[in-house]
Amino acid sequence: MKGVEYEYKGLTEPALKNINFSVNAGEFISIIGSNGSGKSTLAKLLNVLLLPARGEILVNGLSTSNEENRSKIRQNVGMVFQNPDNQLVATMVEDDVAFGPENLGIPGPEIRARVDNALKMVDMDGFQRYSPHKLSGGQKQRVAIAGIIAMEPSCVVLDEPTAMLDPRGRKEVMDTISYLNREKKITIIYITHFMEEASLADKIFVMHRGQIINTGTPEQIFKDIRSLKEVNLDVPLVVELAESLRKEGFSVPGVMSIDGLVNYICS
Amino acid sequence: MFIELKNIFHEYNQDQLVKALVDINLSITGSEFIGLVGHTGSGKSTLVQLLNGLIKPTRGQIIIDGIDITAEKVNLNRIRQKIGLVFQYPEHQLFEETVYEDVAFGPRNLDLNEVEVKKRVEESLALVGLEYEKIKDRSPFNLSGGQQRKVAIAGVLAMKPGVLILDEPSAGLDPRGRDQLIDLLYNLHFEYEMTIILISHRMEEIARLATRVLVLDHGKLVLDGSPQEVFSNRKKMQELGLDLPQITDILHRLRERGFDNIRTDIFTISEASREIVTELRRRD
Amino acid sequence: MLKDITIGQYIPGNSIVHRLDPRVKMINIIILIISLFLIGRFTGFAIFLAFVIFTILISDLPVKRVLNGLKPIFFLILITLVLHIFLTKGGTVFWQWRFISIEEEGIYTGLFMVSRILLLIMFTSILTLTTSPLQLTDGIEYLLSPLKRFGVPASELSMMMTIALRFIPTLLEEADKIMKAQMARGADFESGNIIQRARNLIPLLVPLFISAFRRADDLALAMESRCYQGGEGRTRLHELKVQKHDIVSLVISSVIAIIVSFY
């Protein structure tokens, strides 16, 4: 993204101001920011659901502003949304997963193979003939992810996919995403409010009022607790506890997980 | 207010007889802040709908303030006024043209006069931290998600319930919205002395606010005690597949790894930090 | 309460009738319905009835469910019968009181019409009982596709039907939830006269519509992001293929149709 700006009609302040960043293939990026900071707008720009008012977005070298690239980019950058109910189209799981490939004009037998494979990857094999209505939130969201995977994208953008799930569903979805990134080398752009989830990423972008105000590894980002709180964000509890121990004179390294902290204290 | 549940059973879906609640016995006194915990489908929502008279139990008695609400011909509106229920994503129930009208919906259903209705709307909007004059004439649909939720909660508070039940009230809010909500619940209980029943998956919220924690599993009440008691029972919580508050989890792990004397009934960062420091110094 | 409503009356199964191509099933039905209207004698109905019973048997359907499908049209049948008995004249007069009479022709045509309606309903309900809504939609889409040339958006129509089927249970559940939430604020959906009741529905209907629109918005975005561009160039996971048993069924229906219409 180069110098990207976006504004919604009727609003005085632009939704996005001068956004510049690049994401490499295979990376896991988290975007955090409070409500209204422009995260979702950013996600929609990546998938050509919106076009930038100024600036340019290149996906694998293709500009989103060029109409001819649209379908190609959408196939390449899949998108998963927040509400699991509102993105499933069909009355049967396998038909829903097949929806994307059908739109791409893939021949029937190959769709079959892709659908079964995608469902395996999200650990929903065997649910082919279920009605989405009967699934739990976490299962629905994994079906939605399978629907994207079946289009064989190189990158998946997820816009708060766990916001409406319970802890179990959240864990299922997070495990699936980690698996896709690590094993299948799919680039992940993950938007979230949950700082614990964000800390799993390689890199975090912090957004505030339409701008990216900070980027870095989770360790770097969560080091500065105060500036995160200024933009209405939290840090993971572990990080806060580690910081509190540091104040007491212990040289705790930048830990991100409960295990890390426990290991440090025990050594 | 006093609530008592005696041998409550509930089954739904006549064909398959799904057991939603199995032999629940419970009494809740006026001064409690209850955290209700359990997996999706464990019966939490059924339980709170029973308390509000929205559904009737298959068997058993529910007594609220001396009135058996499971009896025939009970005035359910009186019960519903006493027990306020805030559903998940309550902003999805807003329907009036202005915030004022929406909050006034409940009080008007109680047949109060307009002077009293206005007073209640003013009070409840103030309680949730919205400025009456600024917001009363706005359309609820043009507010931000966080504000919509506050308006919806105000709509229930305007009924002046003695007990307030909230189902996942912080779901989908950003960290700041969550903090504001926790402050609101804290004030309602500790300042306005409202009995609160909070359903939440966020154990941190429960640990910070509740004076008593109830754990449901497959329709059964499996744990009932202070947050300290419930969350120190790590084994049981793990068996049920439920999270512990992260701080408690860390302290439990430290104890497992040789800090035999470390306390595990702590929920705040500052206390936990102090405890760990003391233990570490003792070792040296 | 609202959640118990079922959509369609499909009974899953694996009989030969279940496995027939939905398009072929519909064509069979059309052929036989036409013949039903050409039948001129009761023997024709008897043969047709025998065929209906045969179909019910090989499709493993509980007879009760097929008969249940006749309940809603009970009044229609009764009225048809009564009107014909009293109004159609001709043949022997069985009974007369002033200007009202029951004559042979009346009874005959009455029974004739009633048999036709009964068989029609029984036969079409075999279709809906053995074909899932999804297959029906697919079948309709294929049968309508020749009309695409004249601008009939066959695939879009079937997409709309699929989406409706997908979201009806979701919206019913939501209606149930909103209703309970408003009842918790003292709303009353059960008492009052018709006008009051209609007005009391506003707190339910407004949020429900808003939610439906929000879902529609979300869904449109999600579909667009999954490269949906209308029916053009789409392929299908479940390609419909006409098989041998489909051809056989067509032959059987045609033979039955010819026999009953010209007998």
In a few lines, what is going on in this structure?
The complex is a heterotrimer of chains A (267), B (284) and C (263). Helix content of chain B is 42%, strand content 21%. Chain B is an alpha/beta fold.
Write down the CATH topology of chain A.
Rossmann fold
CATH topology of the largest domain in chain B: Rossmann fold
Please provide the count of β strands of chain A: 11
The count of β-strands of chain B is: 10
Account of the protein in words:
The complex is a heterotrimer of chains A (267), B (284) and C (263). With 267 residues, chain A is an alpha/beta fold. Chain A has 11 helices and 11 strands. Chain A has a single domain (2-217), classed as P-loop containing nucleotide triphosphate hydrolases (Rossmann fold), CATH 3.40.50.300. The radius of gyration of chain A is 20 Å and the shape is globular. The model of chain A has no long low-confidence stretch (mean pLDDT 90). Chain B folds into 3 domains: 1-74 and 162-232, Rossmann fold; 92-161, no CATH class; 245-284, no CATH class. Chain B is built from 12 helices and 10 strands. Chain C is mainly α and 263 residues long. Chain C folds into 2 domains: 7-131 and 240-262, no CATH class; 155-225, no CATH class. Chain C is built from 11 helices and 2 strands; from the N terminus they run H-H-H-H-H-E-E-H-H-H-H-H-H. Chain C has helices at residues 16-19, 22-38, 42-58, 63-68, 74-87, 104-130, 133-144, 154-184, 194-200, 202-225, 244-262, and strands spanning 93-97, 100-103. A two-stranded antiparallel ribbon of chain C has the order 1-2. In chain C, a hairpin with a 2-residue loop joins strand 1 (93-97) and strand 2 (100-103). The longest helix of chain C has 31 residues, at 154-184. Classes of the chains: A alpha/beta (267), B alpha/beta (284), C mainly alpha (263). Chains in contact: A-B, A-C, B-C. The interface between A and C is medium-sized, with 40 and 28 residues.
